[in-house]
Amino acid sequence: MYLYIQAVHIVFVVSWFAGLFYMPRLLIYHTEASLKPEPAATILKNQFSIMEKKLWQIITAPAMILTLVTGTAMVVINRSLLHQSWLHAKLTFVLILVVYHFFTRKIYRQIQDGNFKRSSNYLRIWNEGATILLVAIVFLVVVKNSLSWIYGVVGLVLLGILLGLGIRLYKRLSAKQSG
Question: What is the pTM of this model?
Answer without folding.
Answer: 0.85
